[in-house]
Amino acid sequence: MTGPGFWKGNEAMAEAAILAGCRYYFGYPITPQNEVPAYMSRRMPEVGGVFLQAESELAAVNMVFGAAVAGARAMTSSSSPGISLKQEGISYMAACELPGVIVNVMRGGPGLGNIAGSQGDYWQATRGGGHGDYRTPVLAPHTVPELVELTLDAFDLADLYRTPVLVLSDGLLGQMMENVSFPDPGERRRAGLLRGRELPPKDWALTGAQGRPPRLIRSLLMGPGELEKHNFHLAGKYAAIEKEEPHAEILECGDARIVLAAYGSCARVAKGAQRRLRAQGIRAGLFRPVTLWPFPQRDLADIARTVDRFLVVEMSLGQFIEDVKLAVAEEKSLKQVKLGLIAKPGGAVPTEEEIVAQALEMLR
Amino acid sequence: MSRKTLFARTPGLKAVPTSYCPGCGHGVAHRLMAEAVVELGARERTVAVAPVGCAVYGYDYWNFDTTEAAHGRTPAVATAIKRVLPDRLVISYQGDGDLASIGLAEIVHAANRGERITVIFINNANYGMTGGQMAPTTLAGQVTTTTPRGRDVNEAGYPLKIAELLATLPAVKYIARGALHRPALIRRSKGYIRRALEVQEAGLGFSLVELVSICPANWGLTPVAATQKLEEFMLPVFPLGVIKDEAAASAPAAAETPPEERA
Amino acid sequence: MAFRVKVDPALCKSCELCVPACPKKIMIITDSKNELGFKVAGCTDARQCTGCLACALVCPEVAIEISKEEP
Fold first, then answer.
1. Which chain B residues touch C70 with a CB distance below 8 Å?
2. Is the Cβ of B56 closer than 8 Å to some Cβ of chain A?
3. CATH code of the domain made up of B25-261
4. B226 in contact with chain C, both atoms CB, cutoff 8 A
5. 3-class secondary structure for chain A?
């Protein structure tokens, strides 16, 4: 069944990739994203694409590398431990400037952890994860419809900037079912994160040196100063992304006395808490980054001009809060700010009640 | 009077000196691969994947589209390239660390899936690039920088015979092991490489040519002395020949190019 | 019919593999050094060359080119 309706997150995301023109999926089973390879194994042949269950997550990301080398849109998905395995491949893709989409349906960690949705991979996603000076755009949906939209955007951003892009889902989003109507991809190119910009031709892809000199894709740069130069070239790209691509949802922060900060599934609970606080007459706002890298630092700093209380809610031990601090500190000293944290690692999920209680405590 | 060239550099190789040690087998292997690609008329249709190892710079010498791959992942990268561009000739070129150690899962599974790629595997019984450490192909008793007392099979296992191992897989259609140090063996190795590429072109399945090579620098020998050591110690463990050719009936070999026309 | 054995001195690395390969024993390492400091190989007497290509086949640098003059 394709088309609008009640869709499970993992499957909707897979269908969105197909809509985005992805015709190569390489993956390996790991809970809680097994619906993705299963769906792709059925669906890819229907659209003339390739589904390949790779021998490991490591092999799968290197297949994405290969498909990108050949000029194709390709994707892999996994969950936290499998994403750890992919870090080498992601570093290589970033270094070689290859586009591709990697989806992390986060679960509890570290180690084997558990299979519940969690947000423990924030640092892994936003601080690199693999070796070397590189960054990858990270998109964090909080609903299944947004997961669909951001998956479409991910392929476009990857091609626009010649970079791997991470879509940060989690076990909750992956497993839940919501009402989805798939946007027309052309429409989404105009209305979504691409904002109607033109995608450059892939005149670097390896297709066979017919009537042209051979092309080379590599990241080994041993000559004096070569690698330094390449790193600064990448830095220029990342600076452009930081300028053009941050995106956040900001709810009722203009008059707020306290602002909740949350992303992904956790933001759904935070939204509920923010509505409850408002219903009680408390002027609460919500800051929800959609791009975790580039972090919407300016947006949050602007909010910090008039807000002195921030309650960070994350399904991790205190990773996301670091970026909140960095952003707030752009505007004022952290000593002038009351910063609360609800940390829910290991698959635990916050409740609206506890968020409300802590917010009220902070306002006392 | 006219002059006729009997042997010259193939257009499949760039006219540059290599960074390989004097006598290194990579130079010969590169040449055979490049000649075979050109003879099949496929230079402009070839996409090669270079390994991590001494041949990481292969792309400086091969005159076709080439990509780097992370160590050991060459077969996975090659798999995807071939799936995206099935009518191109896709070659994965690897050494014994890349293929037989860190990349063992990738090569076994690419072979088992019967990926229509051709793998050229250089076996010189050690890790050259990093200074001569033990490889999975290192011989029992062989001294390397990580087996200073000689490889002890009770601790470090036995040399891996990749060609025989992969030949057990049904989707592997052609496996041969050749050598690079004597003219007759070199000609035969060239034939193996051409056959392997023909198997790919015919879409029959996975093909691999293992090439036993000297590594004079890390064996601590002159190239000539190294060839003697190779014959004495390596060939008994890694016998030469066609180990599997299931393509014989369905893909008759193309006619051998006469020496006079080889340019 | 005369064969010509041309060694490109810039490419030769003095590995000496061509020396025992030649069945006529006419390949040697000369005293002439190239820019890299390698003593380059050379053919002592091309009149004895049979055009077997052994030296060219074993050369890892593809430094040897063989041609023949035809009347």
1. 1-4
2. yes
3. 3.40.50.970
4. no
5. CCCCEEEEHHHHHHHHHHHCCCCEEEECCCCCCCHHHHHHHHHHHHCCCEEEECCCHHHHHHHHHHHHHCCCCEEEEECHHHHHHHHHHHHHHHHHCCCEEEEEEEECCCCCCCCCECCCCHHHHHCCCCCCCCCCCEECCCCHHHHHHHHHHHHHHHHHHCCEEEEEEEHHHHHCEEEECCCCHHHHHHHCCCCCCCCCCCCCCCCCCCCCCCCEECCCCCCCCHHHHHHHHHHHHHHHHHHHCCCEEEECCCCCCEEEECCHHHHHHHHHHHHHHHHCCCCEEEEEECEEECCCHHHHHHHHCCCCEEEEEECCCCCHHHHHHHHHCCCCCHHHCEEEEEECCCCCCCCHHHHHHHHHHHHC
Q: Does B47 sit within 8 Å of A62, measured CB to CB?
A: no
Phi, psi of A193 (to 5 degrees): -65, -20
Residues 6+ apart with CB under 8 A from B168: none
C/A touch flag: 3 or more CB pairs below 8 Å: no
φ, ψ for residue B231 (rounded to 5)? Answer: -65, -35
Phi, then psi, of B120 in degrees rounded to 5: -110, 120
CA-based nearest residue in chain A for residue B62: A214
* Lookup: tokens for A126: 């936003």
How far is A189 from A187, CA to CA, in rounded Å?
5
Q: Is B31 on the interface with A (CB under 8 A)?
A: no
Q: What is the structure's pLDDT at B253?
A: 55
Minimum-distance CB partner of A62 among B64, B77, B85: B77
Taking residues B92-96, report their average pLDDT: 97
Same domain, A128 and A17: yes
User: A299 lies in which domain range?
Assistant: 248-363
Give yes or no for B18 touching C (CB within 8 A): yes
Average pLDDT over residues C6-18: 97
Q: What residue numbers bound the domain in which C25 lies?
A: 2-69
B109 touches chain A (CB under 8 A): yes
The whole-angstrom distance between A215's CA and the closest CA on chain B is 5
- Look up the ipTM and state it: 0.96
Number of domains into which chain A is organized:
2
Is A59 domain-assigned? yes
> What's residue B262's pLDDT?
41
